[in-house]
Every structure is written in C-alpha cells, then in structure tokens.
Amino acid sequence: MTSVVILYYSRNGATQRLADAIAEGVTSAGGEAVLRSTGHGSNAVSDRDLEVENSDIENCDALILGSPTRFGHMASSLQKFWEGTSREWLQGALTDKPGAVFTSSSSLHGGQESTLLTLALPLIHHGMMLVGIPYSEPALHQTQSGGSPYGASHHEHSNKLTEHERQCAIALGKRVTNFASKLSS
Ligand SMILES: Cc1cc2nc3c(=O)[nH]c(=O)nc-3n(C[C@H](O)[C@H](O)[C@H](O)COP(=O)(O)O)c2cc1C
Q1: Shortest-distance Cα residue to atom 22 of ligand 1
Q2: What are the b/e assignments for 8-42, b being 16+ CB within 10 Å?
Q3: What sequence ranges are listed for the domain Flavodoxin-like (predicted)?
C-alpha cells in the first residue's frame, strides 16, 4: 500500500483540520495516511499524532507538509525537524518522491502563499517532486477563502473548513497518492 506521511504542527486545530481532510483524500485513493507531528510537549492539538521520527521520511512513498502561518512562514518546530535531516538528505531518502504542502492562517491575506512556497523549499532540497492543486479542481475556482494552486489552505474564520477548502485538501491528498502509486509500481 502506498504510504503517505502527513507531517504537520497545529497549536489549536486549524492546520489539523486540513491534515485530516488530506488524509481522507489519501485513503480514498487507496493509500495509507500516516499522520505525524512536531513540537510535542507544547500542549498542541497535534500531540494527538505520533511525533515524527527521521525513519518516517525514509519509509514513506510521499510526504505532505503542513504548518500554521507564523509571520509568513512555517512554525519553528517543523523547521527544527528539517534541520535534523542532513543524513536523510545525503542519502536521498526523499529524492524522486512526490511532496506537497498546506497551511492555515487567521487573516485571508496574512501570508498563506508565502508559507506554502517556503514550506516547499526543504522538500525541493530533499529532491522531492512538488505536487500542487490543478485548476481542473472546481473548488479552486469557486473558493472565497483558502485553497491555492501551491497547496491546500484554510482561512480560520470558523472552526471548520469551508466545503471548497475541504475539496481542495481532499484533491491534494488524492493527487499525491496517485502519483506515488504510479511511481512505485
Ligand atoms: C506567532 C504567531 C504568528 C502568526 N502569524 C500569522 C501570520 O503571519 N498571518 C496570519 O494570517 N496568521 C498568523 N497567525 C495565526 C495562525 O496562523 C492561525 O491562527 C492558524 O490558523 C493557527 O493554526 P493552528 O490552529 O493549526 O495552530 C500567527 C499565530 C502565531 C501564534
């Protein structure tokens, strides 16, 4: 079964809502969604899922990385994790695997796109093939909140995803899984 790691940090649950919708997309495409988090011990809701280990990135077929928007880029616990992956980088543990990104923010124009693009940088350094959301996904045309060609996103104006945000997140999980399955077959 195609194993897709969804690696994220979420203090209060908004980014976790996206992680769960992406996991739904992975599962609906026949993959195994492996939810992993960073920053354990800070009382974050993402403590629900096991803390990521470096072996997780070696063993996966694809990886989807998500963070709350923090002053326009990723949360520090995620950055800290990537700074401990030199060995996996040298070994090419993620090279040629599909990767994708997601974020949540409290204001609509508060930096979602810069966070998505900067989340992509460690994945590209690790040799991953970046997967976005194509405009063939109807929700991307219709959304009045989150959802971007660069990745899934959520504008946290209520305590749930809008239907369009959810559709974009599911589409991203499916697309990454489909690519990973084709590559490993
Ligand atoms: C230190 C800090 C910096 C933040 N920076 C931004 C920001 O630049 N733009 C924005 O719209 N929201 C910002 N936020 C709000 C969070 O991105 C937003 O509440 C997010 O949805 C939280 O996700 P979570 O519930 O998964 O923790 C910031 C929050 C914190 C604590």
Answers
A1: 68
A2: bbbbebbbbbbbbbbbbbbbebebebbbbbbbeee
A3: 4-177
Q: What are phi and psi of 172, to 5 degrees?
A: -65, -45
Alpha helices by DSSP H, listed for 71-162, are: 76-82, 86-91, 112-125, 138-142
Q: Please, which residues have CB within 8 angstroms of residue 123's CB and are 6 or more apart in sequence?
A: 63, 65, 94, 99, 101, 130
Please tell us whether the domain made up of 3-184 is placed in CATH 3.40.720.10: no
What is the mean pLDDT of the segment spanning 67-78? Answer: 98
- The length of the chain, given as a count of residues: 185
How far away, in angstroms, is 8 Cα from ligand 1 center?
14
135 CA from centroid of ligand 1 (Å)? 27
Looking at residue 158, its pLDDT comes to 82
Distance 155 CA to ligand 1 centre (A): 10
Q: Where are the domains of the chain?
A: 3-184
